Amino acid sequence: MVKFIFGIHNHQPLGNFGWVFESAYERSYRPFMEALEDYPSMKVAVHYSGPLLEWLVENRPEHIDLLKSLVRKGQLEIVVAGFYEPVLAAIPKEDRIEQVRLLKDFAKKLGYEARGVWLTERVWQPELVKSLRQAGIEYVIVDDYHFMSAGLPKESLYWPYYTEDGGEVITVFPIDERLRYLIPFRPVGKTLDYLHSLDDGDESKVAVFHDDGEKFGVWPGTYEWVHEKGWLREFFDAVSSDDRIDLTLYSEYLKHFKPRGLVYLPIASYFEMSEWSLPAKQAKLFVEFVEELKRENKFDRYRVFVRGGIWKNFFFKYPESNYMHKRMLMVSKLVRDNPEARRFLLRAQCNDAYWHGVFGGIYLPHLRRAVWENIIRANSFVSTGSFVRDIDFDGRDEVFLENENFYAVFKPAYGGALFEFSSKRKAVNYNDVLARRWEHYHEVPESATPEDESGEGVASIHELGKRIPEDIKRELAYDDHMRAILQDHFFGRDVGLNDYYLSNYTELGDFLTGAYDFSIFEGGITLERDGIVSGSPARVAKSFRLTDNGFIVDYTVRSEAKALFGVELNLAVHSVMESPGEFEADSFEVKDPYGIGGLKIELDRKARVWKYPIKTLSQSESGWDFIQQGVSYTLLFPLEGELRFRLVFEEL
After folding, report:
1. pLDDT(465) > 60
2. How far is the C-alpha of 590 from the C-alpha of 99, rounded, in Å?
3. Are 90 and 351 in contact (CB under 8 A)?
4. Which of 306, 353, 527, 624 is geometrically suited to a Cys-Cys bond with 516, CB 3.0 to 4.6 A?
């Protein structure tokens, strides 16, 4: 008889749409738990994230009652994590402990004293041991890939182990990767056959499945397979009545057996993450390498040595994520002793908007907006004033300006541009805009999955190949720079909107990403750069100051080059879908009712204005997402000699 632990992880990101919560509830969470109630001998270890629990309490309290009932009957073991589902390795120790304690407190309301942690995205680093033990945690669930990365063979991974850091010890359970690809995608018999094959008479041997609950109804094709065609009930009936399978829970197992020994796990996550976290060019090579090993029938033998990137690589891969993360860390230090502010800060640590894999993640504007909202709300409890510091640890100082209503953060070393303009009143960052990037899966149709496909059952989203539709290809463009407000361009006079929109033009100067000298004054900053435009000397000076309802910036541009000078404003317009367009104006309004709201741009002279949607192509569980990350507004002026103008940004 082999022991079997069956677990699920149910999560919806902070800021997700209400209809997404509702759909996931109806297609997965509700039918799963209702089916479980009908099989009293079935046991499940379950983790619900804080954002989902908060939604359930407000919208489906009957589900909370069902969870309490299943706990009382001994069918559920509650496993916790950070309440707002942070990657624990990416947040300060003090916040880790508070996040875990918050969810432990909720578990008590369900009638369970939780002692185990579902490690968000299974992102492990050794120093987590001390934080988890301090939070009262006795065991943690990670992937078998972590153990194999430490050199353990697969046949040694049917037992938990101890791991230690600084004299603190915790138990680690390995999730069986084979089960992750069988359940629920293949016929029930395949899982039974696999479990039976593990039975060698060793009563301490345990196979662990613990994976996303959304696989049981939310992922494409799974609702019909799991619920309408009866996979879940067949599975519950089969595993709970099979005399060769001993259903157990983590806590039950540890009452009867001790971990097998001591192991030291490296920084790791699950195998797929090691592909996603690599920079795009390297991720493409990684996929090619894995596929080459498979073709040569060498992958199974050598896969223990196949490692890609780590989760924190996303901060290198996406500078927008890095900046958002470092602003969160900055605020964490500021509000640690303020419980009300800290609750907003803990919400801002929800992991989904900081990275991207097979789900939208950072590419979903509403998830980023929720993080920024909570960073800003937490920050507004304290006043920092203005300062100069390397906020995002890129080796170059930022200039942070604050008044009663706004935060403005400039990067003098990157075009002297405004990379954060946040409204305290609205709790929005007007520059929450993601650059258009080439991703490796734009050329690679499939991921580097460790499992081969099967014609039986339903495909996992990791197995779904994708081809870019032709209509998207026509609009697809990539940026060679980050997006900001007050970015300075010099164009040839023959450049048109279409060339600009599709990145099909050449900058005549080096001002877009070049370093500006700066000096700060009360409530403002002056930035200046001397450079070359089409072989002629050029100078740009801009003096910026915050106002009660926005900002004012005065430009002086000098060059003998015959060119167009453009000031680009990349604004986080997410709820109004825009098309490329061109118009003349000395003022215009931008309206985004479900995003940044309204604002007005005023000039002291007429300008030609180019606008276009900044659209990125990303993969998701449903296929391709071609998403508007914001709208670019570029104010154009003919230049020959000296140009002076004033730009006013007014929040409405």
Report:
1. no
2. 38
3. yes
4. 527
Distance, CA of 60 to CA of 74 (rounded, Å): 22
pLDDT in tens, 107-140: 999 999 999 999 999 999 999 999 999 999 999 9
Q: pTM for this structure?
A: 0.95
What pLDDT does residue 620 have?
A: 84
Which pairing describes strands 116-118 and 139-143: parallel, antiparallel, or unpaired?
A: parallel
How would you classify the pairing of strands 76-78 and 44-48? parallel
Query: Using an 8 Å Cβ cutoff, are 407 and 379 in contact?
Result: yes
Q: Which residues pair with 414 in a beta bridge?
A: none
Tell me the mean pLDDT in the region 198-213: 96
* pLDDT of 458 above 80: no
Q: How far apart are CA 381 and CA 72, in angstroms?
A: 42
Q: Per the omega criterion (within 30 degrees of 0), is the bond before 13 cis?
A: no
Type and span of the H or E element at 344:
helix 339-347
Check pLDDT > 70 for residue 262.
Answer: yes
Concerning whether 127 is annotated as a catalytic residue, the answer is: no
Strands (E) located in 252-371: none
> Residue for token digits 């510091």?
389
Going by their DSSP bridges, the two strands 161-165 and 168-175 should be labelled as antiparallel
Select which of 138, 212, 252, 475 is catalytic: 212
Active-site residue flag, 228: no
Percent of the chain at pLDDT > 70 equals 97
Please state the length of the chain: 652
**DSSP codes of every residue in 424-482:** TTTTEETT--PPP---GGGT--S---SS---SSS---GGG------HHHHHH----SS-
Runs of H (alpha helix) within 18-152? 18-24, 30-37, 50-59, 61-72, 93-109, 128-134, 144-149
Q: What is the mean pLDDT of the chain?
A: 95
User: Measured between alpha carbons, how far is 216 from 586 in angstroms, rounded to an integer?
Assistant: 55
Q: What is the mean pLDDT of residues 537-562?
A: 96
- Which of 310, 280, 324, 270 shows the shortest CA–CA distance to 142? 270
d(CA 53, CA 106): 9
Structure tokens that stand for 51 in this block:
């954002």
Given the residues 121, 177, 275, 398, the one annotated as active site: 121
